[in-house]
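Intended use. Records like the one below are meant for learning the mapping from a protein sequence to its folded structure. Do not use them to infer anything beyond what is encoded.
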Amino acid sequence: MTTELDLNTLKRMVRGIATSSPDEIGCGECFEELDRFVELELAGMNAAQALPLVKDHLDRCGNCREEFEALKAALIAIAPSS
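Structure written out for the chain above:
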């Protein structure tokens, strides 16, 4: 059985390999720091500067970015109004 890759999938894979770095984190590590990243951001602090590897991972990983956006939206929704 032969599986063919479409051109867009192949391009994404090559881009991912070409832009990876030796100190990047995986989804598990990102998920462990996600609450901290969101809390920093919601507090008006520079979360990307405080947790650059998390920011880099979120820029690369759609699944983790979706988790980040959902968590952030949930925290905003339950926050008391000022």
